[in-house]
Amino acid sequence: MKKSDHLFLVDGSGFIFRAFHALPPLTRKSDGLPVGAVSGFCNMLWKLMTDARDTSVGVTPTHFAVIFDYSSKTFRKEIYDAYKANRSAPPEELVPQFGLIREATRAFNLPCIETEGFEADDIIATYARMAEAVGADVTIISSDKDLMQLVSPNVHMYDSMKDKQIGIPDVIEKWGVPPEKMIDLQALTGDSTDNIPGIPGIGPKTAAQLLAEYGDLDTLLGRASEIKQQKRRESIIANAELARLSRSLVTLRTDTPIEVPLDGLLLEPQDGPKLVAFLKAMEFNSLTRRVADATGTDAGAVEAAAVKVQWGKDAHGPDLDAAPIDGVELDDATKASPGSNGTARLSPSLTAAGLPTGAAPVDLATMRAELFATAKIDHSGYVTIRDLVTLDAWIAKARETGLVAFDTETTSLDAMQAEIAGFSLAIADNDADPSGLSIRAAYVPLGHKTGHGDLLGGGPADNQIPLADALARLKALLEDPSVLKVGQNLKYDYLLMRRYGIIIESFDDTMLMSYALDAGDGSHGMDGLSEHFLGHTPIAYKDVAGSGKSLVTFDMVDIDRATAYAAEDADVTLRLWMVLKPRLAAEKLTTVYERLERPLLPVLARMEERGISVDRQILSRLSGELAQGAAALEDEIYQLAGERFNIGSPKQLGDILFGKMGFPGGSKTKTGQWSTSAQVLEDLAAAGQDLPRKIVDWRQLTKLKSTYTDALPGFIHPDTKRVHTSYSLAATTTGRLSSSEPNLQNIPVRTAEGRKIRTAFVSTPGHKLISADYSQIELRVLAHVADIPQLKQAFAEGMDIHAMTASEMFGVPVEGMPSEVRRRAKAINFGIIYGISAFGLANQLSIERSEAGDYIRKYFERFPGIRDYMENTKAVAREKGYVETIFGRRVHYPEIKSSNPQVRAFNERAAINAPIQGSAADVIRRAMIKMEPALAKAGLGERVRMLLQVHDELIFEVEDNDVERTMPVIVSVMENAAMPAVDMKVPLKVDARAASNWDEAH
C-alpha cells in the first residue's frame, strides 16, 4: 500500500445487525432457511460496492475489506467479566446466517476478516493505523461512536444509511470533543449497551465540559476534589477506578494480530458468475437480476452454488439481540420485526414490476423490502408548486398512475382549529422505473407568511396559489374514487379536509397498515417506520419550525425549508405504502386492515367533528366542591402527620410516611427518595393505615379537579362550543381506541366524584344522550374463546354471571347470596382475564395471599377450560410471537421468550388477555363501522349522531322524538356486530338508556 491509496473498512457486524433488524423476516422458499439478514447484507454491500466502483460518485477505494466479530469472547471479558453481560444470545433464526454472510462476502470477491479474541472494532483500528502510517487514506463504513476515536486527517467514517461523511468537525459537533478525547469521554459516560460502567450521573454533555476544563481523564481524576458540584465531585472520586476500567474497555487495540496484510486487501474486480451463483443459491431473484445486468453475466447459464449452512455451535457470531445500530440505542420501532400487508389496490405496473410469472404476494413483499431498504431519498428533486398549470400537471399525473401520497401542513395539531399552510403530493414515475423506486414529490404552499407585515404574524408570502383555486383542484383529486390516496395518520388530514368541504374517497393509511401488521412490535409513527423500513431518518419538525421559545407555526416557515420537509413526508409515505401494502396479502391480514382499521377512520373523523356539549356551570360548581373536599382532607392529613407539609411533593411525603412515621414496606427509588407510588399508598391503606388512605383520596380529588373540572373548559371549541376529543386508532396493542385532548377514557366511574363529572356532558336542547354499553363483553368473549360450558350456559340463560361463579366456587345458592361472596367472585372473574396473581387478588379483596391463592386454584378447578385456554395461548405466543383475536387481529409479544422471568411473565399475562380484550375491541369497532349505515337505513341518519366511544360504550345525541325508534337500532347493531364473520357461542348483551346527561344515561 502506498500514500495515494484509499482503504475502505466495512464494519460487517454492524451491517449484519442492521440487515437483521431493518427488514422483514425472510425464508428461502425451497426449504424455509432463514435468510433475511443475508438478503439485507447483500443488498447493502452491493449498493456500497456499486457506488465505490463508480468514479463519478466521488471517493474510489483501492483496497477494501469487510471486518467481523469472531464471537463475544474477547480479551475485554478477561479485564471485566461483566462486559456485554447484558447481551442475550443471538436469535435462533440469525444463527445459521452468520456463516452465510461470510460466504456472501467472499462471493463479492472481498476479504472477510475476523480474529479470535478480538472485536471487529479492534481489527478496524489496527488496519486504519497501519494504512495511516504509510500516508494512505481510510474510510470506515460505520457510524459507531466506538470507532470515532480513530478519526483523523487521514481517517474518516461514512454512514451509508444516511449518506454522511464523518470527519473531525462532525465528531466535535456531535460529542463536544475531538476524536482523540473520545476514549476519555466514553470512559466517563460508560455504555449501557456494552455494560461499561463509567461514572454514574455523568452524561456526554457533562463529560465534554469536564474534559474541556481539565484536559484529560487522568488530570480530571487527579483534581476531582476541585469540582464545585458536590454530587458530581463525590461521584467522580468514588468511581475513579470504574472510569479507569471503562477506559481500558473502550480503548481500541491497534496491535491486533493480522493474518492478511494491507496489500492483501487490494480491491479485486467483481466476479459476476461467482456472485450470481451465490445469490441464486440464496434465491434472491431481484438482486440476482441486478447483479447479472451490471456485470454482464448470463444468469441462466450459471448454476446455483453449493453453500454449506452452519448451525448451532459451528455458527459463531456476535451477540446481536441487544446491540445498538452503530452505537445508537434502538427504539421500539427499530427493534420491531415487520408483519404483513395486502395488495388490494396495487396498480398493475407496480404489482408486476420485476416479478416472475405466477409470483406470490410474499415475493412482491420481499422484493419491495429489498428495494426500498437501500434506495436513497433525494431531496434535490423536490418541487415547489406555485402556479395552477404545474399543479394541474401533477394532478393529471396522479390520475394517470392512479396513486398519490397526500399530506397537509397546518398551523395546529388540532384538526378542528388548524388552518392549512400547504399540502404535499408524491407520485411514482412508472415510466422511469416500474418498480416504484422513482418517486417525485412536491409541496404546494398556500398560506405561508413572510414574518413581517401586519401585527398578527406577517403578510402573505409571494408566489402562492390562491387557496380557493388550489382547493378546487384538490377537491377533484381527493374525491376521485379512481385514484388511491395514501396518507400517514390520515384521519387528521381527512378531518381537516372535511372542514374545507372536501371528502377524501378511496384511501390507504400507512400507520393503520403498520398497526394491522405489527401491533405490539414497535411504534407506527412515520419517523420510526421510515428508519425501520427505509433506513432513512426524516427531517425533524423542530429543525424547520424550531422548538421552545423559537417555535413558529408552519405558515411562518420559509417555503424552501417547508418544501424539503413536507415533500419528504409525502415521499416517505408513498415508499412506506410500497413496502407495507404487499405484506397485508403476504401475511393474510388484508381483511383485518380493510374491515377493522381503514373503514373506522372516517367514522372517527365524523365523531371528532361533531364533539359533545359540556356545561361550564356544572364544571365550575364541581371544581369548587372538589377544592373544598381536598382542603378538608389536607387538614385531616396534617393532623395525622403532626405537621404541615407539601402533600404533592413525593420527597416530603416519603419522609413523613417512612422517615418520621416509620410505616412498613418503604423502598427507595434510584434517586434515593422514598417511593410514594399509588401502589405503595394503596398497599398501606389496605393494611388499615389511615394516613395513606387520606392521601390516596386527596390525590384522586386533586387529579379530578386539575384534569377535568379545571381543564375541560379549555377544550371547548370557540366556534362550536363543544368539546372535540381526538381518537387514536393505533395507540394500544390490542385494538382498543384511546382518546386525547381531552382524554375521556379515564374519567373514573366507580367513585361518586367521577360520576359527577359525567353530569357535565349534556345534550343540547331538544335532544337526549343515549348511552349503549356492552354488558360484561370480555367475560362473554372468554366464554366463547375458551369454550366454557358453565359460562356459556349462564350467559345464554341471562343469569347473574358473578353470582353463578360464586355458587360454582363456594357452593352457595344464588338466591339470597351475600353481597360479599358475589363481590369476591366478581373480582376473580375480572382478575382472571387480566392474569391477576394471588398477591394482586389478596390486595384487592383485603385477604391473605394464601387465601387468594386458594380462590384462584379453586376457580381453575371449577372452570378447567380457562386454564387450558391460558396454557394454549401462551404456547401459541411462544411459537409464533403473536396471538390473534377472533377476527384475526394479531398482537405481537416479541419478548415472550425473554430470559428475564419478570419480562417473560408480563408478556405471558398480556398474551392471555390480548385475544379477549382485542376481540372485544374488534366487536365495538365493527359496531361503529356498521352503525351509521344502519341508522340511515332506518331513516334516522340525519337526526342521530354518534359522538363518543369510551371502552365498551357508545354515546349518541338523538332528537327527543326519535329516542324510542333509535335505541332498538343501536342495540341490534351492537349485539350483532360480530356477525357474519364470527358466530358467537354466547349472546352479546347491550344496555341502553337515554337522559339529558351522560351520567344519567349510563
TrEMBL record:
Its EC number is 2.7.7.7. It comes from the Bacteria. Gene3D superfamilies: 3.30.70.370, 5' to 3' exonuclease, C-terminal subdomain, 5'-nuclease, Ribonuclease H-like superfamily/Ribonuclease H, Taq DNA Polymerase, Chain T, domain 4. The keyword Nucleotidyltransferase applies. Residues 754-962 form the DNA-directed DNA polymerase family A palm domain. Residues 2-268 form the 5'-3' exonuclease domain. Keywords: DNA damage, DNA repair, DNA replication, DNA-binding, DNA-directed DNA polymerase, Exonuclease, Hydrolase, Nuclease, Nucleotidyltransferase, Transferase. GO terms for biological process: DNA-templated DNA replication; double-strand break repair. It holds the Pfam family 5_3_exonuc_N. One of its GO terms (molecular function) is 5'-3' exonuclease activity. The keyword 4Fe-4S does not apply. Residues 337-350 have a biased composition (Polar residues). Residues 331-352 are annotated as: Disordered. SUPFAM superfamilies: 5' to 3' exonuclease, C-terminal subdomain (SSF47807), DNA/RNA polymerases (SSF56672), PIN domain-like (SSF88723), Ribonuclease H-like (SSF53098). Residues 402-586 form the Exonuclease domain. Residues 382-585 form the 3'-5' exonuclease domain. It catalyses: DNA(n) + a 2'-deoxyribonucleoside 5'-triphosphate = DNA(n+1) + diphosphate. Belongs to the DNA polymerase type-A family. Single-chain monomer with multiple functions. In addition to polymerase activity, this DNA polymerase exhibits 3'-5' and 5'-3' exonuclease activity. This is DNA polymerase I. It comes from Ferirhizobium litorale. The lineage of its organism: Bacteria, Pseudomonadati, Pseudomonadota, Alphaproteobacteria, Hyphomicrobiales. The gene is polA.
